[in-house]
Amino acid sequence: MKKLIYYLTLSLLLLLTGLSIYGAFVGAERARRFFNSLPMVVFWIFAAILIIASLVFVKRLRKPSVLLMHLGAVLVILGSMSASEKAHEIRRRLFNRQKPVDSLMLLYEGQSGNELYERSTNSTFQLPFDIHLDDFIVQTYAPYLIVELAGGRMAKMPAEIGADLAVGGNTIRVVNVFENFRIRLENGQSEPFDSEESGYNPAVELAVTRPDGSVYRQFVFELLHGHDMPNDNLRFSYYRPVKDYISRVDIVRDGTVIKSAAIEVNHPLHFGGFHFYQYSYDDKQHQYTILRAVSDDGLNAVYAGYGLLCFGVFWYFWFIRLRRG
Amino acid sequence: MAVKYTIQGLLIYEAMGFYVLALLLGPLKYRRLSLGAYGLGFAAAAAALVYRGMAVAHFPLQNLFEIFLFLGALAFPVTLLSMKFLNSKDIVSDIVLGIILLIPAGFIFSAEPQYLPPALQSILFVPHVLVYVLAYVILTKAALLGGRQLFSRGDYEHSAYQLVCLAFPLLTLGLILGSIWGKLAWGDYWNWDPKEMWSLATWLVYVGYFHFRAHFSGHKRTCSVWLAAGFVFIVITLLWVNLSRIFAGLHSYT
Q: Which among B86, B192, B209 is the top mutation candidate for probing chain A, defined by the most A β-carbons within 10 Å of its own β-carbon?
């Protein structure tokens, strides 16, 4: 029996290694489908049973450290199965439990909503609470300009008022910075201004002094890259690299705010059996945010499995094997 | 292949120069001097890392340039660890490893600073990459010892095994931290991303090694082949996945 378990384990490990390599080649989406397919469900169940059988039949695997790491692996497999789409579907059918695995919610600033859209089933679900988007903020690193000269030479300069750069005989100076660039007519002349109305159109105004001493004005826009003037050898691009995007939300139930949170990348909100993630946003006008709601079913089992696996591995290898020499 | 005419580049080349000096002094029986030069090489590599960290304003483990710089600097601490805990007296293979690891940082990968994207601004960024980098250096050293086992008469397999025992928990921790980080950043603790799949395959190779060795510890050459396979998987995970367009995915920024 021991020999059979041993050879099966080794075969299973080799097979899973091979399947992982296959998964790496086919891309994430196909790999996800493949590893959640029916044959693979059978594979995972068999793997869990094999680990449990090895713990029953092989005495030396029942040492506490080795036992922990193997039980950890079983918990990770079972937790992942419980978190899968199929497990959600089974619970939906058997217990009429309406909980989407992975869904999206689009919210405009100042708007509340409770409707989740699940892409995989093309259906909607109602949350028993509302999410209100108070504010959506995009933080950027220090903005900069890339100046491209004829011949492909490039120079970088900060996009701050007063910053200047001497390049190719030209002198470039930033004279104005706009968050939401608009133009109005004043006394028959067009005049740029920073609009406080909703909208997003960052721009900088440059004063460029040519080698012959003549000066011209140039506007460079973030949303339209590669600006140049006819007969000039300079080409400008304006960049504001995104540092973070944050949705400030309130959870509202029966008209009462029961929780306020800032949802950002690496900082999801956990509420009502879901993790809410900052998924996407309106990158053109910064008017709306898209939150992703992921069911937390099975997650505790997976994390408990991670804990046992990690603890067992360190205990066995560092404090037993290495000490023995 | 491009030479870096910067302070950053100078520090890397200085580290490589000291490593080469240590390598030359070793066979001449100047062991202490060799170790001293090796230590100076480490100091230069560490200075290059600190300089880089100050230039980019975050812990320098974001891209392959920074990773290889870190790997090259780690060779010396790994030697000290091996000397203390494994009674290893061999420093030559570690110095060679240090030089090889610094070459990509010195001549191949661009040192152009990059902004840290939102996903990388996590408390798990440094521990996840750090434990992986540590594990990779130690496992590479184990593979070198495995190679010696294959091509010479000495018995290096047990030392290689001890190194794998040292590195495997770090590899496991790296995988788990990455998974938890993926959950926090992207919403899934497993995204089936090519880098994740290769990392899992690498981890499974070492799990397989332990299972094989538990039953066939006498098959030292086969165990060494297993370690060589592990090294190949590490190279693929660290380099091929990031450099090839075949494996585009969530880790493409690294």
A: B192
Alpha-carbon distance A74 to A186, whole Å? 73
Residue A149's CB is within 10 A of a number of other CB atoms, namely 15
Question: Which chain B residue has its CA at the smallest distance from A292's CA?
Answer: B187
Cross-chain residue pair A310–B197, CB shorter than 8 Å: no
Tokens of A44: 């995972």
Q: What is the ipTM of this complex?
A: 0.89
Mutation target among A19, A266, A294 for the B interface, most CBs of B within 10 A: A266
Give the number of beta-carbon pairs within 8 Å between A and B: 118
| A276 touches A292 (CB < 8 A) | yes
CB B75 within 8 A of CB B97: yes
- Please write the tens of the pLDDT for every residue from B98-119: 999 999 999 999 998 888 989 9
In whole angstroms, what is the distance from residue B214 CA to residue A234 CA?
68
* CB atoms B208 and A10 under 8 Å: yes
- pLDDT string in tens for chain A (325-residue length): 888 999 999 999 999 999 999 999 998 999 999 999 999 999 999 999 999 999 999 988 889 999 999 999 999 999 999 999 889 989 989 988 888 999 999 999 999 999 999 988 889 999 999 999 999 999 999 999 999 887 778 899 999 999 999 988 889 999 999 999 998 888 888 888 998 887 889 999 999 998 889 998 889 999 887 666 666 678 899 999 999 999 999 999 998 999 999 999 999 999 999 999 999 998 878 889 999 999 999 999 999 999 999 999 999 999 998 877 6
Nearest Cα of chain B lies from the Cα of A294 at a distance, in angstroms, of 7
Contacts with B186 from chain A: Cβ below 8 Å: 277
